[in-house]
Amino acid sequence: TKTYKIALLPGDYIGEEITSGAVKIMERVGKAYNVDLQFTRGAIGGAGLDEAGHPFPEATKNICKESDAIFLGAVGGPKWDNVASNLRPERGLLEIRKELGVFANLRPVKIHSSLRDKSPLKESIIGDNLDILIVRELIGGIYFGEKGREGDKAYDVMSYSAEEVERIAEIAFEAASKRDKRVTSVDKANVLESSKLWRETVEKVAKKYPEVELSHLYVDNAAMQLVINPRQFDVILTSNMFGDILSDEASVISGSIGMLPSASIGKGVGLFEPIHGSAPDIAGQDKVNPMATILSGAMMLRHSFNMEEAAKIIEKSVELVLEKGYRTGDIYSGTEKLVGTKEVVEKIMEE
Amino acid sequence: TKTYKIALLPGDYIGEEITSGAVKIMERVGKAYNVDLQFTRGAIGGAGLDEAGHPFPEATKNICKESDAIFLGAVGGPKWDNVASNLRPERGLLEIRKELGVFANLRPVKIHSSLRDKSPLKESIIGDNLDILIVRELIGGIYFGEKGREGDKAYDVMSYSAEEVERIAEIAFEAASKRDKRVTSVDKANVLESSKLWRETVEKVAKKYPEVELSHLYVDNAAMQLVINPRQFDVILTSNMFGDILSDEASVISGSIGMLPSASIGKGVGLFEPIHGSAPDIAGQDKVNPMATILSGAMMLRHSFNMEEAAKIIEKSVELVLEKGYRTGDIYSGTEKLVGTKEVVEKIMEE
Ligand SMILES: CC(C)[C@H](C(=O)O)[C@@H](O)C(=O)O
Ligand SMILES: CC(C)[C@H](C(=O)O)[C@@H](O)C(=O)O
Fold first, then answer.
1. Record-annotated residues binding NAD(+) (chains A, B) (predicted)?
2. What are phi and psi of A119, to 5 degrees?
3. Which CATH class is domain A120-253?
4. From the alpha carbon of A191, which atom of ligand 2 is closest?
């Protein structure tokens, strides 16, 4: 029997509901493969603030240090709207990313065939095989640059080193070489110096992957192309800020943001969380779609514990439950079986 | 008879085709109102480079200085892909904006009722009354901040002063007070210091407009909302960089980027140009849709010369030509009358 330690950080509002089902499913699958998954709970975001006065408390940091992977729910919400900006729940997220050194945020955007009608885009545009992987740089750029005030001015510095660009580009090219072998790098090299460095460096890295086709798009054009022709993309490689914007845009194009997982990886342990937020409006009502979190669990098994088969079993079970027509409200069209969070988890367990 | 001087800067590729028709239409309408519109041609972008070795030549600058308004086509294209970055055609655009001090870029995004089916969004989402005005700050932020290299690093500084935010916010609130009285300010105040200043300042300005409702969105959320519920917006107020991304995203949502005009205004003369680019692929083939440029002309008559009625006549004529079913390829669905650039101009003249 193998043992893996996982830091379980549910976070705020729906955080508890979405992670608890995912944990059950992972434990069950783990057992089948003789893997003992040991979850240790920690507070983050608003919960960290309430419990320990900080959105990423020392105690949680220590739990993370002793873990093989981090499994996170969602953070933030109106309860902490008025706290000082350096203590906001979101700071917890930024700090844990930085602390773990997870420089690559992987966001697969897929349309499940049974959910095709949920996309806001016309069928002629969305087609039936949208499958994009967004690779977003996560611990550099303007998010972590120097910032401050000077008189009546405020500033933020966007900065990248060649090394930072290189390592994220490598992740993108590696991923592409196992997919459709195309990388679209997104920048604003016609205006920004950091984007020029980005482009130069990505081009250098591309030379190591002659089988992968590289193209470049300006970020404004990329925001357009995602809407008018999302199927043109295989892997999108971009910086922290542009990735934040484009990955959210791409996720709603799929029509079911409640289905989308993410993995943040670096040199050490990885961080796995759904893309969606903490949904204060439906928290505690057994309404939220747990699938994004469950699929994030599958990504964790795959990336952190090399449990490819177990990951596939979870993904396949989610697919089957969708095909059988069980739906939470966010993906319900009026004709399928409307169920709650818990029942979705049970149905996936059954599969 | 009144006389106005206009700098006519066709720019590159389709620039000549789109501006020449618009000029004819404006001259005709001007005559009807006893206004003499005097156009003086100048080179900008790639044309400036070819003619005078600079994307915004001194000669053009001088023409602008003696003009009451600037009318621009489009710049850029593959011909100048390999010039030094400080001489790229786009630099001409950035420099003319800065030189003129046009800090407010106004981009109305509308769906013409006869073009509703062109939107990539489902009809249930796009509805029939999309009417957004994007107000983008145009001469500050990361576009014009300090930038450079330091060892293997590259950086760009995003900076705003309270005064810069104030003046653009005022434009947005003024516009909203004449429209549906709602401003959505877009920033990333949960991460950026300059966004925090942006938000504080916008809130101050809002106090002067109690009849206008202000809300805030993070830029990632705004990129999502534009796709899932674009009809929620009246006026969107945002910074240079975010405005670049969001206004392009919004423009394709309308389904007909070839229809969208823009006005850039400041303390002095204004700059009027279509939103779309220089379309090298269809240049010189009498194929391009001249309507965005013609509607930019209408905006010029309205904003710079206070010729409201003349502007309305042009806008109405464009509407009528659409209703009669004359379409260039970009807005042709297969059943209307497919016509070329010149014929569209003639049809509008007839109306
Ligand atoms: C909460 C916020 C700081 C965060 C980000 O911008 O990175 C979020 O939007 C995300 O994309 O994970
Ligand atoms: C050409 C480019 C520099 C420009 C910009 O980013 O401002 C363009 O995209 C625009 O939006 O007018």
1. 77-90, 277-289
2. -65, 140
3. alpha beta
4. 3
State residue A18's pLDDT score: 98
Of these residues, B181, B248, B324, B332, which one is catalytic? B248
Nearest by CB to B156, which of A153, A193, A257?
Answer: A193
Q: How far is the CA of A120 from the centre of ligand 1 (A)?
A: 23
B143 assigned to active site = yes
Q: Is the pLDDT of residue A320 over 90?
A: yes
Specify whether B188 is catalytic: yes
For the CA of B275, the closest atom of ligand 2 is 12
- Number of A:B CB contacts under 8 A? 165
- A129 has pLDDT over 90: no
Which SS3 state, helix, strand or coil, does residue A15 take? helix
- Specify the CATH architecture of the domain B1-110+258-351: 3-Layer(aba) Sandwich (3.40)
CB within 8 Å: B159 and A163: no
Q: How far is A248 from chain B (nearest CA, A)?
A: 6
Of B152, B154, B160, Cβ closest to residue A193: B154
> Which amino acid, residue B67?
S
CA distance linking residue A107 with residue A186, whole number of Å: 15
CA distance A201 to B223: 28
Mutate which of B249, B257, B262 to disrupt the A interface (most A C-beta within 10 Å)?
B249
CA–CA dist B296, B262 (Å, integer):
6
**Do the beta carbons of residue B46 and residue B55 sit within 8 Å?**
yes
CATH H-level, domain A1-107+258-351: superfamily: Isopropylmalate Dehydrogenase (3.40.718.10)
What pLDDT is recorded for position B116? 87
Residue B124's closest chain A neighbor by CA? A120
What lies within 8 Å, CB to CB, of A70 at 6+ separation is: A6, A7, A9, A64, A96, A100, A269, A270, A271, A272
Buried b (16+ CB within 10 A) or exposed e, A235-258: bbbbbbbbbbbbbbbbbbbbbbbb
pLDDT digits (tens, 9 = 90+) for A259-317: 999 999 998 999 999 999 999 999 999 999 999 999 999 999 999 999 999 999 999 99
Task: Check for a shared fold between A1-107+258-351 and A120-253.
Answer: yes
Q: Is A83 on the interface with B (CB under 8 A)?
A: no
Closest by Cα among A157, A160, A163 to A145: A157
Q: Pick the residue whose CA is nearest to atom 6 on ligand 2.
A: B244
Instruction: Tell which one of A72, A93, A245, A246 to mutate to probe ligand 1, the residue whose CB is within 8 A of the most ligand atoms.
Output: A93
Domains of chain B, residue spans = 1-110+258-351, 120-253
Distance, in Å, from the CA atom of A48 to the CA atom of A55, rounded to the nearest integer, reads 5
Residue B196 zone, left/alpha/beta (φ > 0; ψ -120 to 50; rest) = alpha
Q: Are B64 and B99 in contact (CB under 8 A)?
A: yes
What length is written for chain A?
Answer: 351
Q: Is A3 exposed, middle or buried (0-12, 13-18, 19+ CB in 10 A)?
A: exposed
